[in-house]
Amino acid sequence: MGSSRLAAVRLLAVVAVAFGLVYIGWRWTGTVAWDAWWIAVPLVLAETYSLGETVLYSLTMWNARRRSPAPPAPEGLSVDVFVTTYNEPVDLVLRTAIAARDMTYPHATWILDDGNRPELEVAASRVGVGYVTRGPEWEGRPRFAKAGNVNNALFRTSGDLVAILDADQVPEPRFLDRVLGYFEDEEVAFVQTPQHFWNVPPSDPLGTQAELFYGPIQQGKDGWGAAFFCGSNAVLRREALMALGLTRFSRDARGAMRAALRAGRSRLQDLLSQLAVREPAAMPVAEQALAAVRRAEGQFRRGDVLAEITSELRSAFTSALVQAPGAVPAEASPGALVSQESPPLPEDVAGELLAELDGVLERVDVARTDQALTINPLDTTTITEDMATAMHLHAMGWTSVYHHEVLVHGLAPEDVGTALSQRLRWATGSMQVFFRDNPLLVRGLSLAQRLMYLGTMTSYLSGFAALVYLAAPVLFLTLGVFPLHADPALFFLHFLPFFVACQLLFQVSGKGSRGLWRGQQMSFALFPTWIAATLSGASAVFLGRHVAFSVTSKTKQATGTGYRHVLPQVVVTVVLLVASAVGVARMLAGEASAPATFLTLGWVAVDLALLSAALRAARYTGPGDTVVDPVPPSVALLAAQAVGDVLDGDDALPTTFDPTEVPLDLTVRHVPRSSPWPPSSPHPTSP
């Protein structure tokens, strides 16, 4: 935003926060209805939360950054473009892959097929792009959805930079040329561009365009050095991702070894006490093993190499078994722990010794045997790998860039069920990060970066606040329980300045962004989704429950209306209307104060206006003819031809790939699933 608009935003931010502090201070000190504390306290807490969100939004907008045009893209960068897919229609994936292939900056294009579909592999070869899928090392091991798919490809390609596109995100030919110049700064880890959806009508009934986020909010985060990576339409530096993966592996391995050594020492101490009573002859083995564990703990504290600690511990355990009376090397079977010169150890004791020492070694060994990859560059601890990865890159000292220019055109959900499923996944992953890696506790982040991440994560707690804002007026209108003690005129005197200042701040900061009111509506109306996401994220972190990664469908899932997907909002709407009728009847009967009733009815009117967005979304049946597909006809035709070849049975994979047979004179190498990794030939490029 320009300097004059930024000045206006800063002024409004100060005014809004000041009015908010006055209002909340007044609410806490003199208006809480303590006789009905069970609703009065949640209400004032919800209002305090809303003020906190206003403060975080004001801080975000305070430093909104309008970047100068990026420098020209430097020559000679090697770039891999990843098109990620799982189960999307083959023709849709090919449209994106062909458009990516035809970008003007030299690069390699790869389809990352997590669905392992032979027909897509054949089609990829027909249009001249690479094909990557998981290898046998992933069988029976955690796959980590999209994060695992990208991590797998990172170890099978070699470009300096990696561009990531979802299967439906079609890039313009100039995409790479417009953003690669930022990477002349060696500290830039990634550049994010907006996600724009071409199949959304101007009315945006599902609230999917998110122009406020992909605009002022991202510019504000960028101004504080915390622009988000959003999973697609971004270019990342491979070096930064690999450095992050190595750092996280080292940190996790050290934590695991520390805990394993501590547990091993405790277990061996217990075993030694038991052997003193049961089998004293076996005590030397346990004593020497315990001494070895203590030496390993000392090495760990000194910062020795973890692999060397494990190796020396294994040697010490073997030596202890060899030197013990009646013992032979640890490689022997439990029954072989005997000596011709000493009484043999009972077989059960020998087996117990070997099992204990093997168990300690297995826990201490830092090599990951339960995962396909030792190093995971993209974060795999949450289903929103993009936010978590960006946060930890920032914590390492890398910087990011938000480039505010639409260069990629995607598909948005066209039914309310799919849209809600997508939002639930985003919110659940964000709350996973909130509970597991709260930005306030992540070392390396600046205070501003902590607050930028916190502001996004805590926004999903609004579901609980909305529930209170809906329940409070119903309780007064039906039961006469009013959660605050204040004269209505005095209430408006305190509340209206805060409310008006917030709305002005929102409108001025978001000027030029469409759907501002719709965004406010959806933020409130989707309260069941936000509550479910918060509970799911907390359960995943604290109870270890699995959270499935649901791929957003690229086709409409149902015909007709979708009221069943917004049933809670429908029920609440009916309850508000019935409560209003009851409240009016109670007022006319003299059972309720008229000023308080009118105040509450106004409150209900605002709630209904916000909830109406969900009801309107349920009636949405698609954009119809109001939108135009931006994909060039030549790209769509080529994708259709490739699919047609596969359907016609022309699906034999070539033993060698001849670039001269590729349409549009493209030079690229196809990598079948049986090819060795990493590729041994030169990095593939396209003109």
Overall description:
The radius of gyration is 31 Å and the shape is globular. Strand 1, helix 3 and strand 2 form a beta-alpha-beta unit. Helix 2 packs across helix 7, helix 13 packs across helix 14 and helix 13 crosses helix 18. 54% of the residues lie in helices and 6% in strands. The strands form 2 sheets. A 7-stranded mixed sheet has the order 3-2-1-4-8-6-9, with helices on both faces. A 3-stranded mixed sheet has the order 5-10-7. It folds into 3 domains: 228 residues, no CATH class; 230 residues, Spore Coat Polysaccharide Biosynthesis Protein SpsA, Chain A, CATH 3.90.550.10; 120 residues, no CATH class. The relative contact order is 0.15. With 687 residues, it is an alpha/beta fold. It is built from 21 helices and 10 strands. Pfam families: Cellulose_synt (PF03552). Keywords: Glycosyltransferase, Membrane, Transferase, Transmembrane, Transmembrane helix. Its main location: membrane. It is a multi-pass membrane protein. This is Glycosyltransferase.
